[in-house]
Specification:
Elements (H helix, E strand, L loop, with lengths): L21 E3 L4 H4 L5 H6 L4 E4 L5 H4 L18 E3 L1
Parallel strand pairs: 1-2
Antiparallel strand pairs: 2-3
């Protein structure tokens, strides 16, 4: 198993299908929730794992901002996959 780091400035321009999955770490959740990335998550054929996220909604709904205090919690999640 090997891991490669992907920067957000190349996020839309690289072939994500060449990866098995993308892990987005806790410190990058706010940037990952920016509206320009929602279509990437919704249209991708690979899973995205949001480490320590409470819901996929801030990442897949363009007008929903990410916050640690976001109002809906399904339970104690460590990983959230979409």
């Amino acid at each position: 198993m090997s891991f490669s780091q992907i920067s957000f400035d190349k996020f839309n321009s690289i072939d994500l299908d060449s990866y098995d999955a993308v892990f987005i770490m806790k410190e990058n959740l706010s940037q990952a929730a920016e509206r320009q990335y929602a279509d990437v998550y919704l249209n991708s054929t690979i899973p995205f794992i949001f480490v320590s996220a409470k819901s996929h909604i801030p990442f897949t709904v363009k007008d929903e901002a990410y916050s640690n205090f976001w109002g809906w919690t399904p339970g104690m999640a460590i990983l959230l996959g979409y």
